[in-house]
Structures are given as C-alpha cells and as structure tokens.
Specification:
It contains 13 helices and 64 strands. By secondary structure, it is mostly beta strands. It folds into 4 domains: 153 residues, Serine Threonine Protein Phosphatase 5, Tetratricopeptide repeat (Alpha Horseshoe); 415 residues, Methylamine Dehydrogenase, Chain H (7 Propeller), CATH 2.130.10.10; 234 residues, no CATH class; 174 residues, Galactose-binding domain-like (Jelly Rolls, Sandwich).
Amino acid sequence: MNQGRFEPAQKLFEQALAADPHYALARLNLGLALLSQQKLEAARAALEEAAAKLPSDPHASYNLGLVYKDLNETDKAIAAFRHVSEIAPDEPDSFYFIGVLLTQEQKFDEAISAFQHAIALNPFHASAEFGIARAFQRKGDTNSAREHLARFQKITQDHLGSPMGAGYGDQGRFSLAEFARSAGPAAPPVIPVHFAAHSIAELTPPSAGHPTAAGPSTGACFFDFDGDGKPDLFLVSALDGGTSRLLRNLGNGKFEDDTDAAGLKLAGAGLGCAAGDFDNDGKTDLAVCLADGVRLLHNEGNGKFADVTQAAGIRREKGCVSLTFVDYDHDGDLDLYVVNAPGGNANNVLWRNNANGTFTDVSAETALGIPATGAGVVTSDFNNDRAIDFVIAGGENGAAIYLNPREGKFAALPGIDFKKENLPPAVGVAVFDFDKDGWMDVAFTHAGAPGVSLWRNVDGKKLMRVPLPDFGWTRGWGIAAFDYDNDGWLDLVAAGETNSGGELRLLRNLGPAGWADVTKDVKLDAVKLHQPRAVAVADLDGDGAADLVVTQTEGMPAVLRNEGGNQRNWLRIDLKALNDNKSAIGTKVELYAGPLYQKWEVQGASGYLGQNAMPILAGLGSEKEAQAVRLLWPTGVPQDEIKLAARATQKIEELDRRGSSCPILFAWNGREYEFIADMIGPGVVGHWVDPGERDVADPTEYLKVSERIARPRGGLLSFRFMEPMEETVYLDQVRLLAIDHPAAIEVNPNERFVSNPPFPEFRVIASRNTRPPAGASDDRGKDVLPLLAKRDRKYVTEFESLPFAGFAKLHWIELDLGAWRADRPLRLLLDGYTDYFTATSMYAADQAGIKVIPPYVEAQDANGKWRRVVDDMGFPAGLERTMVADLSGKIPPGVRRIRIVTNLKIYWDAVRIDQTPDTKDIRVTEVPLVGAALDFLGYPREIRGTPASDTWYSFSNRSPTGPYARAAGNYTRYGDVKDLLRAPDDRFAVFGSGEGVKLDFDPSRLPALPAGWTRDYFFFADGFEKDLDFYAAHAFTVEPLPYHTGLAYPYREGQEYPVDAIHLRYELEYNTRQRSGKLPASLRYDYRNAGAPKN
C-alpha cells in the first residue's frame, strides 16, 4: 500500500481473508485498497463490515467516511467522521472533514465550529484554514474569509504545513493502511554474523619488496579513485614523521599501496579526509586535513593526483580537523566545508565552488563561518525541504543543526543544548533514518560519558532522545550507520574508550523493540583498539556484506571483515549523476522491497574524520528484489527504478530529462492533435536573475498556427494547452485570431523573448519575397549559409557549451545582408529555438562570474570596426519557432555585415531578410471561445531531434504517469473554466504537471476569404508559469499567486495578489483542488494504451 501498488495489495488482503474470513483488520485494509482504486461500492462493503467489527478503531470509520464523501452520501459521511472524533478526539482531520461536509450542506455555523476545532488541535492545518475561509465567505463574512485565506497562504508558502491531497495517505494519518498491533514492522530474528579482524599490513602485500608504510592513522576515506568499481582506501597519518597512504583495492580482499605511484606526497600528521568529484570530470578527487592546513588533490585520471590547493584559491590554514564535500547551493558542483580546531579566532570555513576550478570563501555570507568546532560534520536535508542542511558536532551547545535558507544565512535549529541534557560536546556524527519514518535521525559520539547518543528527528523541527544501552564509556570517537546483517534495518557502530582502553560497540536495530548491544555476538569484543579514531564502512570484497575499517593513533588501522551478513539478500546501488554533481552527493534514495522500506541520503564525509564508500549497500532480508527504488537528485529531478534484482550491483544513471519546460500547445489537424510549440516562457515568475533580483515577467504571447494545421473538429477549432513537465501554470486568458491575407504573403506575430521591458507589442508582420542572407559564417569562420538558407531543423551548433544549463561561451553568427534598401523596413525573420537556462544555472553561472548576454547586434562600419547597434535583439521564446527582429533604422545605410552575439545556447535554423513595406491587406478577426475545460491530460511522449534539446511532442501517445512533481497548494478544480479564460482579470486556471485545458473556438461566423487569400491563426495566451526550481521564488508552492504588474515576483508587502471580493470569491470557489506536494505513486512513463488519459 505504501508503495502505491494498490491492486497487488488488494489481492494479498483477499488472500488473508480467504485464510481467515473473520480477520477484521484485513477487511479494513482491503477497503482502503479498494478506495485507493476508486472502487467505491466494493470499498463501502468492506469498510462497513470492518467498522462494525472494529468500532473502536478510528481507521475503519475514517475511511468509511471518505467513501461516503466520495459517494455524496453526506449524512453518513458526517456520522462516520463524528464517530472518529469521539474515539480519537485529539485528531484534527476528522473535524476538518466534518467542516467540509457541513459547508456543502450550507450549515455554515456548524462548519465553522468544526474547522475551529481542527485548527485548535493543529494551528498549522492548512486545509482547515482554507475550509473555514470558504465557510465564512459563503456565510457572507468576507473579512473573516479574507483573514483565514491569508493564514492558509502563509502556512503553505512558508512550509509550516501542507494542504491535504486526494490520494492514498494524503488525507490524514488514518487514511494510511493499518498494521496489526502485534505484527508491526520489526527486525527479523538474529542470524550468526561475526567480524574477522585483520591489520592493514596483512591485507597489503609488499610492493617492490617493500611493505606498506601505513601505520598509526586518523582519517579513513573510502572512494573509487581508479574507476574500477571497487572501494579504495585513503588513510591520513597520525604521526609527525609519517605519510598518508592511498591503498588500491585489488578486489580479492587485498590492497596495493599506490601512494608513490599516485604522486601523493603528504608528509606529516593530519586528521580528516573527504572524497568527491569537485570538477565534475567523472573522477573522484580528495581533500585532506594535514597539520599545515587543507590540501585539495585533483584526480588526474591516470592514477595520479595533483595538488591544486593554491590554484583553487583555498587558504592552507593550520588547524583543519575535518571536512566534507557538499553541494550546499544545489548548483550541480561540490563545495567544501572545513571544520577547524578551536582556539584564538579560528572559525569553520565554507568554500563555494565557482565551477571554474576555483573556490570562494562564503563563510560570512552563509553564516556558516561559526567559531571553530573541532569535530565531525555531516550534511543532510534534516527538515525535508530539499535544501541540504549541516549537522555539526562540537561547538558552544555541544552540537548544532544549521538549516539551509537557499539564499542568505543559515540559521541554527533552536532547542539543541547538550548542557541541558548533561551531555558533553559531540565528537562524531552520523545521520540515518533508523525508524523508517522518512526523516533523517542523528547519532553522536561524545567527548565524555555516555560516549554515544541517538536522537529521533521529529518532523524536521526538533530532536528527541532515544534510549541506548550504557557502554560505560569515558568518551566516543568514530561512528557509522550500516546494516551489518542485511535485515533491512540500519544498525549503529561506534568506537570509544573505557577506563580499560579502546573498543567498538555494535548496536542492532530491533525496530520498535529498540536497540540491542550485539558486540559480543559478532566477536567485536575481541578487537582491542589503541586510541581509536575513525570508523568507515565499505564492502571491501564485494560479497554483499559491509566491512569496517577503524583507525588508531597508536596502532595500524584494523580491517574487520563481515562474515555471514550476506546470508540475507542485499542490493548495491551505484549512482551516476548527469546534471547534478557527478558524485551524486545529496541524492535521496528510498527503497521498497516487499514490506521493507528504507531511506538513505548520499553523503560526503561522515562520522568522525572519515567517509564511507559511496555505493549504498541495502539489506533486503528475504526479499529477492526491490520492487522500486525512488531517487530525488539534488537539483530536484525525481526518478523511479523498478524490479531491481537482489545480490547484484545496480548502476542507476540519472534520468536525462529536460530541466524545465513551458506549457505546450497542440492543434487538431483533422487526424490528431499536432504539436505547435511551447508558450509563455517569458511569463516565468520568481526566476533568479542576480543576487537579490528576480525577473519581470512578460505574460502575453502570440503563436502562429498555420492554415495547414488548424482543421475543424465537430465544426470547432480545437486545441490542447497543457503542462508536460512540472511547472505551475497560471493561465488567465486565451484567444484565437484568424489572420486573413493574400496567399503570396507570409504572416508572423511580432514575438521574441526580451530580457527587460518594454516588451514587444502586438503586430502582424506581413512578409513577401523574403530571401536568405548573401553570406553567413560562425565565429570560427565556418560557412554556415547552407544551414541557414532554409528551415529544416539543421542548426548552427558549433559553439562551445559551458557547464551551466543554457550557457555557452560567447559566440556569434555573422551575416552578409547583401544589397538592401534604406527606404524600406529591414527585418530579420529568424527560425530556431532556445535551450533555456534555469534559475539554478543562472545562479551557478553567476558564481563563476558569468552573466546572461542576450543576443545583441553589431554592424561593421566602413573602417572594419564592429559597433553595437542593438543591445537586446531578443531570442526565440522556447522551442522551434519564427521570431522577428526589426532592424529598421538601426543599421547605417550601405552596411552589409552584421553579427548576432550571445552566450546563450540558441540554435539558429534559418535566417531571412525581409524588406516588405507595411501593408493593409491583412484582416484580423477574433474566433470566439466556446469551450474551456481543465482536466488531467497525461504526459505526451517527448521526441528529440539533433541536437537532443530540439524537442517536440506526440499528443496521441501519452502516459498517465511521469517523472515529475507538483507544487503544494490549491489548484483550480477540474471542469469548465471558460469564465476564467475570457479576460485578463487575474482569475487564473491554475494547473500543474500533466494537466491542461481543452479549448474549442467557433469559426462559423468568420467572413469568407477573398479570391487568392488564405487564412492562418494566431493563438494568444496570457499567463504566468513558475518553475519547480531550487532558485525560483516559492517554487514548491502554488501560492502566492502572481498577477499583472510590472513588479518582480515575489511581491513586497502591500503589493500582493488582490484581495477584493471578486478575487476572494474566485480563490475560494475555483481553486479548491488541494495538493500536498507529495510525490506521486509512480514516476515512470507508461505509454501503453491501457489507462491512457482521454482527449
């Protein structure tokens, strides 16, 4: 059920009932499985029987209430929810649904009372705030309605709470399947596992007659430096006269010392290390804390490393203790956080990756340059808002969690103070979801008794301490979470000291039963350590059982081989990022295997002074496959992989999908809906432009639909306007203009994407006898006239791309206009498309000192000098289309050579010179809108040309599911939206991923065409769209709504969306379809006919 596989769940519940027809809990969950498939009558029967047998179980009556609600049996639904409120009086959701149903019955006072009760129980109940606003509005109390609507918007846009959705588990906690009280998720029985101890010298045969020089060590980092798929080991020396060592994994449980061969000359003592591909070249690099400061070592790819610390601009300050690679700003490259030792004025340092081989100290701007903490650090999305946070051991309060604001200063999570808990400062730190609730929990080691503590993450808002066995430790050091017995429950290992010396302790996760100390059972009690430090985890021999390495400052590193953990099934998940940092650090991974659910985050360094191997080793217990592995990559791309076989390495490559899109338009051509282009790209709101600056949207656009394509369907001209990816669309008006003209004339709208106002005004550009340029070349001198002579999807492509989406190095096309007349207009008709930049890529490029340079025009004067004549020519507003650039009066008479210069990835297809005088032989007639219905339309198949960013879509081949998310908030309800789309009044049809409007226009009253004339159409859309982008303002919520203004979004206080009676009524009556922002059950395309949405 929790995997969204309702039909198989139904069959399993039916099997349970066949075995025991009186098993009421199976009957209840069967009803929920049927409800989730909208098999309402069958669900009613199952849940009525379950409710009769389980009168004290709120799940039964709650879901029965949901069934009655969907069947419009309001009185029965109210009675069911009232029963829930009696047996579970502290649950707000039942009162919310009572309020909804009473509002439908127009019993507004009773409804308001129910909503107030829900809000009293949960002050951040977003749906209850919206519900009470509707009740007040319908009662006629506009002021109260406005007040509660504002609270709803505050709660959603500030992520204080989420509205309820309509799917399984999205309608309150009682809408989830119920586990049997005695058979909830629990760890299986113990199996015999033990760890065999070896010194590193035993496993590293002498090379060239010399034994390894690895000796007493501090830091230990696993990473695959040579790309052979095996975890290699880097050890930081603990001795002033020692040398840090790089040990290559030979794959047979043995290592080879490659330190000298790799060119690593790291003499002297050090502490922590971290590994990550900071320059995204596909090879994992290394950072080390040595006594004389940080060293950044670039993996050259030939088995050698180069010290690039100075070239990268990183200060080599003394006092470095630990460090980690992290993409804190989600821009696709790894930054570096350095923890220094306390003393003097020492601070921790955050180095931001500039994506050009250099780093910038942003400690002050981010407020992460806190007084030096001198202990471990790990990064994690603690509050599940998709932004990477920092969990830092040590410091004034013993430890701290710093929450990521996306831009600006990190803020410490309040309430963490180890002094109040009588705990010494933390030393090491690990994050892991030990209780399978989807929130990353935290474990620390401490600089004193009890040595170890564990904390449950409570909804990303606070930590709650979890009891652990007492080890009698005087202090703790390294710590790591791993599944030692592959039972699907993450366990905990830590290194510490007692009065008798150093030791390891292994705690087995028993699920709800707590934690058991199994150190003796696995023979780790026999391992005697001398001043232990780091603990790092890797499957050294690839046998599916997780092994350990423990460093010692007074002894060689100990290798502890796991013998027996692989009796249970396992799965190794090896990620390969494409559009994110190549190490995939920050990726969220969720696994579903039978009843097992597990969650991980791919981390850089963790514990204390170490780093675990990157591939995730997932224990599957007795399951033979993972039914689904769900990924959320750092830049926000969700992805599902299904049916992954156990006992194998599964390499998962990041989905190669476009990062963003605009709504797309299809027109009925007599056989099918044919793709025209995307629209309202310039209407994007909240797009990052510069620090502290957002774009000003241009919400209107005309798009030509040729007479060849637009054909009547049932006497009407029919269109589909939809969102194929995951933007939130706010569509305000649509129009269709019939453009009648002589057949010898070509017509185009005066459209292009310009960066700032004034935006292009509507005009019909009439062209006759256009011609290609006399010559054309690119900035390398290559003749590109054959590519630009006609529109054929053969583009000018030989510009050099930059590592930021939509950006290239500065380049141009040079045109010879040929002879032209100065007494006539001079226009360019340019065909092509733009591979759009994103808010994130603009942010990342800005860090490297790169700004958007929209196309500008230069003309070559009589002296051969190039002079700029147009600052912003504009560019195609999305996928392949014709744009118009009016150069009239801009080019000096007699000048033939111009060039169009930009650093954007614009693919020019054709260029034509147009000198047609203005003509009156054009007739424009509006075709009335007669039908507009909002609906779910599915995901049309994406077709890619050459280059791959040249994209178009097939509407006839659609999938009901796709790899996309939706923003949380209130969308426009499905159905008739014609009244919303008639005029630009800021009453939008709001829709998201896979949704769109079905539009019909009546051409029956269009005038007859004169002889020799033809008719094209201009489709007009007025609206906004908001990207689900990390650096878009309010990207993950529908609210606040945009509106027509010359201001940048989000608007300042006092400039928000109108709150007059008309717009209040619109929001409360139309935008009633709530979505929680939860990812859908499936993120995969499925283009089979079964289940495909209708037209």
